[in-house]
Design goal:
The complex is a heterodimer.
Chain A: E1 4-7, E2 10-13, E3 19-25, E4 31-37, E5 43-51, E6 54-57, E7 64-66, E8 76-78, E9 87-94, E10 101-102, E11 106-110
Parallel strand pairs in A: 2-11
Antiparallel strand pairs in A: 1-3, 3-8, 4-5, 4-9, 5-6, 7-8, 9-10, 9-11
Chain B: E1 4-5, E2 10-14, E3 19-21, E4 24-25, E5 33-38, E6 45-49, E7 60-64, E8 69-74, E9 83-90, E10 96-98, E11 102-107
Classes of the chains: A mainly beta, B mainly beta.
Amino acid sequence: NAGVTQTPKFRILKIGQSMTLQCAQDMNHNYMYWYRQDPGMGLKLIYYSVGAGITDKGEVPNGYNVSRSTTEDFPLRLELAAPSQTSVYFCASSPSHNEQFFGPGTRLTVL
Amino acid sequence: AQRVTQPEKLLSVFKGAPVELKCNYSYSGSPELFWYVQYSRQRLQLLLRHISRESIKGFTADLNKGETSFHLKKPFAQEEDSAMYYCAQRTSGSRLTFGEGTQLTVNP
């Protein structure tokens, strides 16, 4: 099993550009999550999903969108990138309410 | 809103010394608490959960409802314990609220 995979590993965007961060898991987990981690801060939940076709906002959803058309994939869309979205983005999945399994992260810089 | 507080951003100890990473939570009910760890160049991973009452890699954590704390302890720190440690609390459903993390350095 590859577990949770994220692409790309790194990306530099210009202000106003858009991009999609990809996240996939091969563990057949129902729950998936997107977090952002700013320097010196903990992880903040952006969006989460409890199953295909169901998504909900987390703590910091503004400027982002998600979709969950399959159990495996949970892409995060950034529209009109802003410098405040410079961060490390982590995707995670879990089979239940307990342990979350994390991807390696995507480091995004918006200039 | 529920909050998880880790008061120390940085903690440095010598090998063989005891280590305690502090965590305080704000939920007044029956919390579910976790410690996650991120070693250098590795993914964030679960270290232990309070409900299991387990010891992982020599670490234990006791839930103290009176002090709303879930401190992580190890009697004899090892160099390989150097990592970033996050305390987390399950909020609604499957969501977790994370603390800001403590970077532990174990010096030789």
